[in-house]
Specification:
The chain is α+β, with helices and mostly antiparallel strands and 100 residues long. The protein has helices at residues 15-30, 66-74, 76-85; strands spanning 2-10, 35-41, 56-63, 89-98. The protein has a single domain, classed as Alpha-Beta Plaits.
């Protein structure tokens, strides 16, 4: 299994727009072969926990294999999603992991 943690930082005030685009794309990703999990998470309110901040969300993914992840990245709906968000993002860090 392949795990992906993608830290997406929108330009100030643009996170909600990027998250809407993300959520609109989720059904197409869930339909992809090899997709086990794909969703977004944001900081919890309150508590003494580390925060990513108001412009950032984290995408948590699980894929059956690296080949499935590569196909996901090359899919037409992901290319369209990237184009929609091109001018809305400040930073993007994608961490691809395997079981220890």
């Amino acid at each position: 299994m392949i795990h992906v943690i993608a830290i997406i930082t929108a330009k100030p005030g643009k996170r909600d727009e990027v998250l809407k685009n993300f959520k609109d794309n989720v059904p197409a990703v869930h339909a992809e072969k090899g997709c086990i999990e794909y969703g977004a998470a944001v900081d919890i309110d309150g508590g003494p926990f580390a925060k990513f901040g108001p412009d950032t969300f984290v995408v948590i993914e699980k894929w059956e294999s690296m080949d499935h992840l590569k196909a996901h990245g090359a899919s037409e709906h992901m290319k369209a999603y990237a184009a929609k968000n091109k001018d809305l993002l400040a930073d993007r860090a994608v961490h691809v992991l395997q079981n220890a």
